[in-house]
Amino acid sequence: MSKISLGGGLDAHRPIIKWKKGPADSIDIYVDRKDGKGFVFLVNDSTRDYVDNHPLPTGTYTQSGLTKESSS
Asked: Which pLDDT belongs to residue 28?
């Protein structure tokens, strides 16, 4: 797995997960919405900068990502 630059922000009041692809083929994004479920799979994204269309929760929540590379 590769290290990538992972960041975030807001896009029209929706969370946006910003990442630079680099050598990765895609990234699995997980989210903890502080609803007692812990980190759950959100999406496998193969293009940079994913917009999460889930309504913004009150307070804070956490997102994390794991890169995937194909073995050539």
From this structure: 86
Tell me the pTM.
Answer: 0.69
At 25, list the tokens.
């083929």
Query: pLDDT band at 26, cuts 50/70/90?
Result: confident
Question: Which among 1, 2, 70, 8 has a CA at the least distance from the CA of 42?
Answer: 8
**3-class SS string, the chain:** CCCCCEEEEEECCEEEEEECCCCCCEEEEEEECCCCCCCEEEEEECCCCEECCCCCCCCCCEEEEEEECCCC
Whether pLDDT at 64 is above 80 = no
Rounded Cα–Cα distance for residues 68 and 44 (Å): 9
Q: 68 and 24 in contact (C-beta within 8 Å)?
A: yes
